[in-house]
Amino acid sequence: MQGLTDYAHTLTDDSLPAEDLHWLQLILSDWQVISDLAGADLVMWMRTEDNRYIAVAHARPATSSTVHFEDVVGMYAAPSRVAMLEKARNSKKVLSNEAAKFAGTYSLKELLIPVIMNGKTLAVITAETNLSATRSVGNAANWTMGAARILADMITRGEYPYDATPAAVQHGQPRVIDGAILIDAEGYVREITPNATSCLRRLGIRENPVGRLLIEDVTQIVQASRSIDETLAVVAMGKASWVAEIERHQTTITLRAVPLINGDKRLGAVLLTRDVSEMRRRELELMTKDATIREIHHRVKNNLQTVSALIRLQGRRSQSEEVKAALAEAERRVTTIATVHAALSQTIDERVDFNEVARQVLPLGVDLARTKHQVSIEIEGDFGVVKSDNAQALATVLTELVTNAVEHGYRDYGGVVRINATRNGKCLKVTVSDDGLGIEPGRARSGLGTQIVDTVVAGELDGSIEWKQREDQAGTEVLLEMQLEC
Predict the structure, then answer these.
(1) Which CATH number fits domain 4-156: 3.30.360.10, 3.30.565.10, 3.30.450.280, 3.40.30.10?
(2) Residue 138 pLDDT more than 50?
(3) Crossing angle of the two packed helices 277-317 and 321-344, in degrees rounded to 10
(4) What is the mean pLDDT of the segment spanning 212-240?
(5) Which of 216-225, 237-246, 289-298 has the lowest mean pLDDT?
(6) How far is CA 108 from the centre of its chain?
(7) How confident is the model at residue 172 (pLDDT cuts 50, 70, 90)?
(8) Architecture in CATH for domain 176-275
(9) For residue 93, what pLDDT is reported?
(10) CA distances for 177 relative to 38, 62, 183, 188, 290, angstroms
(11) Per the omega criterion (within 30 degrees of 0), is the bond before 161 cis?
(12) Which of 85, 218, 329, 439 has the highest CB neighbour count under 10 A?
């Protein structure tokens, strides 16, 4: 489906500069506030090369019934509507279609808002209100519609959206339906919705806030708080389009200011409130859980490193070469597991970038292998992100394969072991190849390491493994194919 930029470049009467498109995108990112305040469907229209108007964006109100049950994006305006759109475009003022129109069983009223930037009309927004619909804001419908009209006038003057609006906001941004407060230029509360009243009472503001200076009530609440949002005073006075949070006891209320201005004159502001106490509590629980998991992985890694050191110490004290070799293999396997836990201790979830793990683990298979010749390792491709259980098993398998290739393929000379990974969704294909002596008849898959590999691949990775002689008869190639959980 085409978006705003596509329509602007392919259908409109002229090519809009990047800054004009950016301005339209800013309006679309925040026009839900106007839709909810007005209780109206908002449709953005752009003029095409043949002087028709096409709908490029549509917002439905959360505070009232929608007018358009079907998606109107991509539809052209009816000829009877084009004249009004042209009039609004040329007048560069908000126009109200006084005559109510009937759409089936209900009547609607239409407001036309030209989008102006640097004296140029970029588009026209129609605000269509279902006159027979019940508003979820109750008796506040009159003042919220008045606030929406002020924002509409600000669009025609290029004053909305605001330059100071932060590019990103916290999860849980308040909406009109969550609670709205109208304050005047001095910060006194003039109107308030029932949901906003409930939010203030949860903070401890019991008296009717209408006629009171909101910043004074809020200041009394946060005086005993250990942390105070630095932007709270500016937001509570409606002086800037920012978001602040108020915390008291176990309650957290998000407050967002939508200033109402006319040039240099402040008319007041609409403050949107939302109780995000449960949301913040869950976020804190998740953060605590993540920290606990990382600490567990860190301690497991430390314990495994201790075990590895004890095995290495025991190996040095042994007089038997066979025992030393067995302990060296055990040490290598423990070190491999410890490396995976080290990677898991650095992430916030139970997934790791296995490319990083492979670069740390696989060289261990070369370093700890029993060989007197110089063998290097090359890793190509992309393993992708792997769950912790799969990462542990995959690291063990690949380390065993690398060690096996070094010990059995390069007894007489050195070379290069190559690992190539290809990831496609859940499917991971890995090739481990060497240019060594190749597979000896009767010895393939007879050792402990290869038995471990077969067991882990089939049991934990839900995969298959194939050993074969390379096509040029120089060395061995092992093909792994597995299905990993995303």
Answers:
(1) 3.30.450.280
(2) yes
(3) 170
(4) 81
(5) 289-298
(6) 38
(7) low
(8) 2-Layer Sandwich (3.30)
(9) 93
(10) 12, 7, 17, 21, 33
(11) yes
(12) 218
Through-space distance between the first and last CA atoms of the chain, rounded to whole angstroms: 28
The values of phi and psi at residue 4, to 5°, are -60, -45
Closest of 178, 139, 160, 121 to residue 267, by C-alpha: 160
Residue with tokens 């930037």: 117
Spell out the domain ranges in the chain. 4-156, 176-275, 278-349, 370-486
Cβ atoms 31, 59 nearer than 8 A = yes
Q: Which residues pair with 416 in a beta bridge?
A: 376
DSSP string of 68-111, one letter each residue:
-SS--TTPBPPHHHHHHHHHHHHHTS-EEEEEEEEETTEEEEEE
Residues contacting residue 10 through CB under 8 Å, at least 6 positions apart: 2
Give buried/exposed letters for 443-478 (b at 16+ CB in 10 A, else e).
eeeeeebbeebeebbeebbebebebeeeeeeebbbb
The answer to whether residues 380 and 419 touch, using CB atoms and an 8 Å cutoff, is: yes
User: How many percent of the chain have pLDDT more than 70?
Assistant: 80
C-alpha to C-alpha distance for 411 and 436, rounded to whole angstroms: 8
Best CA proximity match to 34, nearest among 172, 162, 127: 127
State pLDDT tens for residues 11-43.
654 567 888 888 999 999 899 999 999 999 999
Tell me the CB-side half-sphere exposure of residue 199, using CA atoms within 13 A.
Answer: 28
Helix (H) or strand (E) run with residue 54 in it: strand 53-59
Q: Which are the contacts of 414, defined by CB distance < 8 A and separation ≥ 6?
A: 373, 374, 375, 376
Structure tokens at 30: 């925040």
Both tokens assigned to 474: 């120089």
CA–CA dist 418, 353 (Å, integer): 19
3-state per-residue secondary structure call for 405-455: HHHHHCCCCCEEEEEEEEEECCEEEEEEEECCCCCCCCCCCCCHHHHHHHH
CATH class held by domain 370-486: alpha beta
- What string of DSSP letters covers 360-394? HHHHHHHHTSS-SS-EEEEEEE---EEEHHHHHHH
- 388-409 vs 354-367: helix axis angle to the nearest 10? 30
Q: Do domains 4-156 and 370-486 have the same CATH topology?
A: no
